[in-house]
Amino acid sequence: MACNVPVVATDVGDVRDVIERTEGCTVCTPNSIEEMAAGIEVALAHTERTTGRADTQHLDSKAIAQRIIDVYEKASGLKIPAKPRQSYQ
Protein backbone atom coordinates (compact mmCIF):
# COMPACT_ATOMS: atom_id res chain seq x y z
CA MET A 1 0.00 0.00 0.00
CA ALA A 2 2.84 2.40 0.75
CA CYS A 3 3.86 2.03 -2.90
CA ASN A 4 0.37 3.20 -3.94
CA VAL A 5 -0.50 -0.05 -5.70
CA PRO A 6 -3.56 -2.26 -5.06
CA VAL A 7 -3.33 -4.88 -2.32
CA VAL A 8 -5.21 -8.16 -1.91
CA ALA A 9 -5.08 -9.57 1.61
CA THR A 10 -6.94 -11.95 3.89
CA ASP A 11 -9.13 -10.69 6.73
CA VAL A 12 -6.84 -11.23 9.73
CA GLY A 13 -5.94 -8.88 12.55
CA ASP A 14 -6.65 -5.27 11.64
CA VAL A 15 -6.11 -5.78 7.91
CA ARG A 16 -9.71 -4.86 7.08
CA ASP A 17 -9.45 -1.55 8.96
CA VAL A 18 -6.27 -0.65 7.10
CA ILE A 19 -7.12 -1.84 3.58
CA GLU A 20 -10.81 -1.31 2.98
CA ARG A 21 -10.56 2.49 2.91
CA THR A 22 -8.30 2.37 -0.17
CA GLU A 23 -9.85 2.02 -3.61
CA GLY A 24 -8.51 -0.94 -5.59
CA CYS A 25 -7.60 -2.90 -2.46
CA THR A 26 -9.54 -6.01 -1.47
CA VAL A 27 -9.97 -7.95 1.77
CA CYS A 28 -10.78 -11.66 1.37
CA THR A 29 -12.01 -14.36 3.70
CA PRO A 30 -9.05 -16.54 4.74
CA ASN A 31 -8.74 -19.69 2.60
CA SER A 32 -11.30 -18.45 0.04
CA ILE A 33 -9.74 -19.08 -3.35
CA GLU A 34 -12.75 -17.52 -5.10
CA GLU A 35 -12.52 -14.26 -3.12
CA MET A 36 -8.75 -14.11 -3.59
CA ALA A 37 -9.14 -14.60 -7.35
CA ALA A 38 -11.82 -11.89 -7.49
CA GLY A 39 -9.58 -9.56 -5.47
CA ILE A 40 -6.69 -10.15 -7.85
CA GLU A 41 -8.99 -9.30 -10.77
CA VAL A 42 -9.99 -6.05 -9.04
CA ALA A 43 -6.33 -5.19 -8.39
CA LEU A 44 -5.31 -5.90 -11.99
CA ALA A 45 -8.22 -3.85 -13.34
CA HIS A 46 -7.33 -0.87 -11.11
CA THR A 47 -4.95 0.97 -13.44
CA GLU A 48 -4.52 4.15 -11.39
CA ARG A 49 -2.22 4.60 -8.42
CA THR A 50 -4.00 4.07 -5.12
CA THR A 51 -4.05 6.42 -2.15
CA GLY A 52 -2.55 3.74 0.07
CA ARG A 53 0.35 5.80 1.38
CA ALA A 54 -1.93 8.67 2.41
CA ASP A 55 -4.53 6.23 3.78
CA THR A 56 -1.96 4.68 6.13
CA GLN A 57 -0.41 7.88 7.52
CA HIS A 58 -2.29 7.32 10.78
CA LEU A 59 -0.27 4.12 11.21
CA ASP A 60 3.16 5.73 11.63
CA SER A 61 5.14 4.70 14.71
CA LYS A 62 4.58 7.95 16.63
CA ALA A 63 0.81 7.81 16.12
CA ILE A 64 0.67 4.17 17.20
CA ALA A 65 2.88 4.84 20.23
CA GLN A 66 0.59 7.69 21.27
CA ARG A 67 -2.48 5.47 20.95
CA ILE A 68 -0.80 2.84 23.16
CA ILE A 69 0.10 5.50 25.73
CA ASP A 70 -3.51 6.72 25.70
CA VAL A 71 -4.74 3.20 26.45
CA TYR A 72 -2.28 2.77 29.34
CA GLU A 73 -3.19 6.17 30.76
CA LYS A 74 -6.89 5.40 30.58
CA ALA A 75 -6.43 1.95 32.14
CA SER A 76 -4.15 3.14 34.94
CA GLY A 77 -5.65 6.56 35.58
CA LEU A 78 -2.12 7.95 35.52
CA LYS A 79 -0.49 10.46 33.18
CA ILE A 80 2.60 9.11 31.43
CA PRO A 81 5.28 11.82 31.13
CA ALA A 82 6.07 13.01 27.61
CA LYS A 83 9.79 12.68 28.24
CA PRO A 84 10.95 9.18 29.24
CA ARG A 85 12.99 8.65 32.37
CA GLN A 86 16.72 8.14 32.07
CA SER A 87 17.48 4.73 30.62
CA TYR A 88 19.18 2.05 32.65
CA GLN A 89 22.34 0.96 30.89
Automatic annotation (TrEMBL):
Molecular-function annotations in GO: glycosyltransferase activity
Residues of the Glycosyl transferase family domain: 1-47
Signal peptide segment: none
Pfam families: Glycos_transf_1
Protein name (record): Glycosyl transferase family 1 domain-containing protein
Native source species: Dictyobacter kobayashii
